[in-house]
């Protein structure tokens, strides 16, 4: 199972002008066990004239009963740890 989170900006609050600025793809690699491991990839879409960024990592021992938002939080925690090493 894969969870995809998309971040977008809406200039002036106008959804017709929405632009994707980032995506997270989080995939369960433990056959949906109650306590699962996940691989993730975070992608930041480049601003015009800029460069995109991609980070990969793993979250281990996540209790699926904690739900998707706690999983997203753990992914961001792992990403932050990589940035401080």
Structural overview:
The protein is an alpha+beta fold and 85 residues long. The chain has one domain. Helices cover 19% and strands 46% of the residues. The longest helix is centred in the last third of the chain and has 16 residues, at 68-83. The mean pLDDT is 91.
The number of distinct β-strands equals 4
Q: For the report, how would you describe the main beta sheet?
A: 4 strands, antiparallel
Structural class: alpha+beta
- Please state the average pLDDT score: 91
Low-confidence stretches: none
Q: Quote the distance from N terminus to C terminus.
A: 30 Å
Instruction: Give the overall form.
Output: elongated
Helix content: 10-25%
Rg over CA atoms? 15 Å
Strand content: over 45%
- Discrete helix count: 1
- What is the H/E order? EEEEH
Give a brief outline of the structure.
The chain has one helix at residues 68-83, and strands spanning 2-9, 19-28, 35-44, 53-63. The protein is α+β, with helices and mostly antiparallel strands and 85 residues long.
């Amino acid at each position: 199972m894969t969870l995809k989170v998309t971040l977008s900006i809406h200039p002036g609050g106008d959804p017709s002008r929405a632009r994707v600025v980032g995506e997270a793809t989080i995939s369960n690699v433990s056959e949906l066990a109650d306590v699962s491991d996940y691989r993730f990839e975070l992608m930041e879409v480049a601003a015009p004239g800029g460069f995109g960024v991609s980070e990969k990592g793993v979250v281990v021992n996540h209790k699926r009963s904690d739900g998707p938002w706690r999983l997203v939080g753990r992914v961001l925690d792992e990403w932050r740890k990589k940035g401080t090493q």
